[in-house]
Amino acid sequence: MIAGRLKQTSWWLVLSVQFVTVAVPLAVLPFLSLHLQRLSGAGTTDIALWAAVIAAAPAIGAILSTPLWARLASSYPLGRLMGLSCLLNALSALLQAQSGTVEVFALGRSIQGLTGVGVLLLLAVEHSRTTRGSGYSGLQQALAAGCIAGPLLGGWAFDNDALQGLLTGFAVLLVALSVFCGYVFHDARPVKDEEQSSGFAGLLPPTPTRMLVLSGLLATAGASGFMPFFAGWALEQESAVLTASLIGLLHAGSWAAAIVVLPLWGRWIDAGRERAVMRLSTAGSLFALVSLLAGSTVVLISLSRIVHGAFNSGLAPSLFSVLGRSRHRVANLAAGRMATTLGQAIGPAICGLAVFAAGNNGALFAAALLTLLASILLYLQPEARSHDVE
């Protein structure tokens, strides 16, 4: 009875950590340039380089540190690592809250990428009282909720000059979550792969997994690539109707659609249809992007964002579910997490280059092309067999 309650508590704790660690950076990111101007007293052009570096720092840190956290997970109890990760996230939020200079703020953002929370949460699914489909789709629901709440809270705090208080509050909450993680996961043993590689090979997933991970990288790049340029593109299409607030609601609608649809993806994943979910996810995302190329009324733009959010939400949980049921699950999950993080970084970079060549429509075309490549790779792969993912 008590063990069952602890299992249920551990699941809600995992979701809480996911929600908070997503909401914190997104409370600042939409207003990053404006916040840096306040800190430095400089203009937009003067802090442009700082803004680019600070925005990219967490992703770069996560890519570099994920293999280390995966190796630590095979040697140290998960509860201890989760607690340490939450403390590092708390330190990151506190430094950003108390920063009086751009340099200190940049340090806080950089620490954010070194916390390893992404791969640790994936491993924590195995220690929670939930099925694999419900676990990974639940993580994605918590992420979507954080993506909605973060900008809303950050926007309110920025308008009311309360960003310092908001980030300090998040830091205190993360310290509390750290304590709970140490208690709830106290009996979670180190997670070991059946076979471990050393050297450079240990940083790569096993060969049968690499094409799947590459597909996830491309699909994530396609989904993330157009996002920074969506507002500019939408205003070009319907500037007389669309406002910044309405565009924000369109983004929120996309994440809300994900929250609604994710339980359905979870059922498919529990039925062993992960690759079908990945294929349908990329195909639906591609359709949503291409529909914007065909027409661009306010109604079509709104429907496209909702469709894209609903279909794209199935990608991450299905990918991680496939990678998680293998003899190399720690290495595979770490590789999958690195790939999706890298996709979030290179997608906007590729679409940004396309903007120079063809304007905001170029970014949309580039995002559709990346998604198409991911879809082709997935459809070229054979149906999963027991030995497909080692």
Compute the gyration radius: what is it?
Answer: 20 Å
Low confidence ranges: none
Helix content: over 70%
Number of helices: 15
Outline type: globular
Count structural domains: 2
Quickly give the CATH architecture of the largest domain: Up-down Bundle
Task: Report on this structure.
With 390 residues, the protein is an all-alpha fold. It folds into two domains: 2-192, Growth Hormone, Chain: A (Up-down Bundle); 205-380, MFS general substrate transporter like domains (Growth Hormone, Chain: A). It is 79% helix and 0% strand. It is built from 15 helices and no strands. It has helices at residues 2-28, 32-40, 48-73, 78-98, 102-112, 117-124, 132-159, 163-184, 207-225, 227-238, 244-270, 274-294, 298-312, 315-324, 329-380. The longest helix is centred in the last third of the chain and has 52 residues, at 329-380. The model has no long low-confidence stretch (mean pLDDT 85). InterPro entries: MFS, MFS_trans_sf, Sugar_transport-like. Keywords: Membrane, Transmembrane, Transmembrane helix. The chain crosses the membrane at residues 12-35, 47-69, 81-98, 104-125, 137-158, 164-185, 212-235, 241-265, 277-300, 335-357, 363-380.
